[in-house]
C-alpha cells in the first residue's frame, strides 16, 4: 500500500503543477495582449497608407456605409501576436511530442489566414472585384481541413467523440470527414459573424476561454497556452475594433480564427460541444440558411428583415453596441453550459 504521507505529497505536487500551467497561460495571455497592442498601431497605419480599406455591401444596412474604407485585414495583428509569443516561449520545446501539437493549429491559422488575406485584398474599397467566390473559398477551406483531419486522425490518433453523461464513443476513420465538416463550418460561421464592431472578436474570446478551461481540466498544457494567448491577441484587437472601429478583422482573421477554434475543439475531443460553446455563431449561420431557404420556398418573402441575424436586429432599431453586448451575454451563458457539460 502507498503510505498516506507519500500519496499526500504526490497530490500536492500535481496540484502545484496544475497551478503552474494556468499561471503560465495567463501570464502569456497578458504578454500577447501587450505585444499585439504594440504591433497593432503600425499595422493599422500601414493598412491605411496602402488603402487597404473595407468595401461595404450596398444592400447591407445603410448605417454601415460610414464604415467604407475602414482598414481591413486586422486579423494579421491577431495571429502575428499569437505566432510571436508561442514561437519565443514554445519553439525550443517542439521536439517534445506534446508541444509539437502546436504545429498543426498554427499551420491551419497560416493557411486559412492566407486564403482570407487574398480575399480581403481582392475586395477593397473602390475596387471592382467582389473578392474570391464562395465556391473557391469553400474548395480551399475543404482542402486545408482535409489535411488537418488526416493529421488529427493518423498522427494524433484521434478517432472518437465524447458524448456528455455517456463518455467516449469510437468512430474510427469517420473522424476525418467529421473533422473536415467541423473546421469548414466553424470557419464560415465566424466569417458570417464578422459584421459588427467587436462582435466576432468578443464571441471568439469567449469560445477560446471555454476551450482553454476544458484543455486545462484535461491536462493539455500547451493547448491551454494556445487558447489563452489567442484570447490576449483578441483583446488587443478589440482595443482597436471598439466602436467606431479603427480596423476590421476581415476574412484574414475570421477564417483563420474560426478554423483554429475548430481544431482546438477537435484536439480536446469535445467538438460535440462546439455548437453550444459557439451558440451565437450557430444562430447567425442558421439565420442565413433559413433566410435563403425561406426566400426560395416562398418566392421572395423574407423570414428576417435582413440576414445575418445581427443585421435583423439593426433594422429593428437596436444600436450596434447593444447588439454586440447582448450577443456576448448569450455567448457567456452558452460557454458556461459548454464547460459544465465537459465536466459530465
Protein described:
The protein has helices at 4-49, 75-90, 97-100, 103-122, 134-154, 175-193, 199-218, 221-241, 250-268, 274-277, 279-297, 309-315, 320-342, and strands spanning 160-163, 167-170. A two-stranded antiparallel sheet has the order 1-2. The model has no long low-confidence stretch (mean pLDDT 89). It contains 13 helices and two strands, in the order αααααββαααααααα. Helices cover 69% and strands 2% of the residues. It is mainly α. It starts with a helix and ends with a helix. It has one domain (16-270). The chain is globular. The longest helix has 46 residues, at 4-49.
User: Unreliable stretches, pLDDT < 50, 5 or more residues?
Assistant: none
Query: What is the first-to-last residue Cα distance?
Result: 31 Å
Structural class: mainly alpha
- Into which percentage range does the β-strand content fall? under 5%
Number of domains as seen in the coordinates: 1
Describe the strand arrangement of the main beta sheet, using strand numbers.
Answer: 1-2
Shape: globular
* Mean pLDDT over all positions: 89
Number of strands: 2
Count of helix runs:
13
What about the largest sheet?
A: 2 strands, antiparallel
What is the N-to-C succession of helices and strands? HHHHHEEHHHHHHHH
Please state the CA-atom Rg, rounded to the nearest Å.
21 Å
Task: Please give the share of residues in helix.
Answer: 55-70%
Amino acid at each position: 500500500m502507498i503510505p498516506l504521507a507519500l500519496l499526500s505529497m504526490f497530490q500536492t505536487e500535481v496540484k502545484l503543477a496544475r497551478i503552474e500551467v494556468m499561471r503560465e497561460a495567463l501570464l502569456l495571455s497578458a504578454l500577447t495582449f501587450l505585444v499585439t497592442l504594440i504591433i497593432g498601431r503600425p499595422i493599422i497605419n500601414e493598412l491605411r497608407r496602402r488603402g487597404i480599406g473595407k468595401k461595404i455591401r450596398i444592400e447591407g444596412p445603410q448605417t454601415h456605409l460610414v464604415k467604407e474604407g475602414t482598414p481591413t485585414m486586422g486579423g494579421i495583428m491577431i495571429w502575428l501576436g499569437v505566432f510571436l509569443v508561442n514561437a519565443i516561449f514554445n519553439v525550443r520545446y517542439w521536439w517534445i511530442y506534446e508541444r509539437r501539437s502546436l504545429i498543426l493549429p498554427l499551420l491551419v491559422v497560416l493557411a486559412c489566414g492566407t486564403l482570407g488575406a487574398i480575399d480581403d485584398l481582392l475586395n477593397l474599397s473602390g475596387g471592382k472585384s467582389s473578392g474570391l467566390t464562395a465556391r473557391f473559398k469553400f474548395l480551399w477551406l475543404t482542402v486545408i481541413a482535409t489535411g488537418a483531419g488526416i493529421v488529427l486522425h493518423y498522427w494524433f490518433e484521434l478517432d472518437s467523440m465524447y458524448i456528455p453523461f455517456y463518455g467516449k464513443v469510437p468512430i474510427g476513420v469517420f473522424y476525418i470527414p467529421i473533422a473536415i465538416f467541423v473546421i469548414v463550418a466553424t470557419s464560415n460561421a465566424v466569417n458570417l459573424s464578422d459584421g459588427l464592431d467587436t462582435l466576432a472578436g468578443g464571441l471568439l474570446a469567449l469560445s477560446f476561454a471555454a476551450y482553454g478551461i476544458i484543455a486545462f481540466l484535461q491536462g493539455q498544457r500547451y493547448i491551454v497556452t494556445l487558447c489563452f494567448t489567442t484570447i490576449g491577441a483578441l483583446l488587443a484587437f478589440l482595443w482597436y475594433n471598439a466602436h467606431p472601429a479603427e480596423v476590421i478583422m476581415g476574412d484574414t482573421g475570421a477564417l483563420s480564427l474560426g478554423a483554429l477554434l475548430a481544431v482546438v475543439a477537435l484536439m480536446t475531443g469535445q467538438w460535440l460541444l462546439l455548437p453550444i460553446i459557439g451558440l451565437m455563431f450557430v444562430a447567425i449561420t442558421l439565420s442565413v440558411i433559413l433566410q435563403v431557404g425561406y426566400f426560395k420556398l416562398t418566392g421572395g418573402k423574407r423570414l428576417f428583415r435582413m440576414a445575418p441575424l445581427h443585421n435583423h436586429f439593426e433594422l429593428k432599431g437596436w444600436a450596434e453596441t447593444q447588439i454586440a453586448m447582448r450577443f456576448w451575454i448569450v455567448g457567456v451563458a452558452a460557454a458556461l453550459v459548454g464547460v459544465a457539460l465537459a465536466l459530465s
